[in-house]
Amino acid sequence: MSMTREEAILKIKKCLALSKSGNENEAAVALRQAQSLMREFQIDPDLLDIVEASCDSKATKTPQAWEASLVLLISRAMQCKPVFSSGSSTWGIKASWTFIGVDPAPEVASYTFDELYRQVIRSRKNFIETTLKRVTVKKNKVRRADLFCEGWIDSVKHLITGLEIEVPANIQDRITKYMNQTRGKLGSFTPKDRNKGKALNDRAVNDYHAGKQSGKSAQLNQAMNGGKQYERLETST
């Protein structure tokens, strides 16, 4: 059975690890095998530790501004490049975010998004079912729920910026190189903002602050990535 590119990369990494062996013969054989595989699969050794990690989104064609803000906060903290892939209800394909960066940053980013996204969606649902239960106009209900989510995201910023992970200084150049080799030119989009250009009255401000208050109960549990444990306790009130 032929080896896939992903399998080849794993094999190369193992060979490079063996190439540091104290056994000179074993090290030389491992290095030659790694170099051979890199030539065969046209793998740039400078990009071996660039990986991708994806997570589902409830958006379809275009994500909301508050969701994009969460992704951007995480991407900056983890120094990853985020890519959004649209879903298709016709084909049963879920929309998703992909974080691209140096291992293990994308896995940490994906974990962080999954955890916080699940919590904000749950809090949003509760806000709609309680505070907004008497709002009959759907677009008004959705707009107010968006403001709630914006406040919620603002409240959890410190959880994201507090994550500790070391990345190389030249990572952005390497990610760009990886993107050019693997994905080519990608399109761009502007997140949906249902409240853009609208004056914020007292009720809107209250919705936003309700989100900030709700976000104080958000938490990131333990995540094991790359052999290092990431822990975050419940946010302070």
TrEMBL record:
<feature type="compositionally biased region" description="Polar residues">
    <location>
        <begin position="214"/>
        <end position="224"/>
    </location>
</feature>
<feature type="region of interest" description="Disordered">
    <location>
        <begin position="184"/>
        <end position="237"/>
    </location>
</feature>
<dbReference type="InterPro" id="IPR024498">
    <property type="entry name" value="DUF2786"/>
</dbReference>
<dbReference type="Pfam" id="PF10979">
    <property type="entry name" value="DUF2786"/>
</dbReference>
<dbReference type="InterPro" id="IPR055592">
    <property type="entry name" value="DUF7168"/>
</dbReference>
<feature type="domain" description="DUF7168">
    <location>
        <begin position="52"/>
        <end position="182"/>
    </location>
</feature>
<dbReference type="InterPro" id="IPR016868">
    <property type="entry name" value="Phage_B3_Orf5"/>
</dbReference>
<dbReference type="Pfam" id="PF23771">
    <property type="entry name" value="DUF7168"/>
</dbReference>
<feature type="domain" description="DUF2786">
    <location>
        <begin position="10"/>
        <end position="44"/>
    </location>
</feature>
<feature type="compositionally biased region" description="Basic and acidic residues">
    <location>
        <begin position="191"/>
        <end position="210"/>
    </location>
</feature>
<protein>
    <submittedName>
        <fullName>DUF2786 domain-containing protein</fullName>
    </submittedName>
</protein>
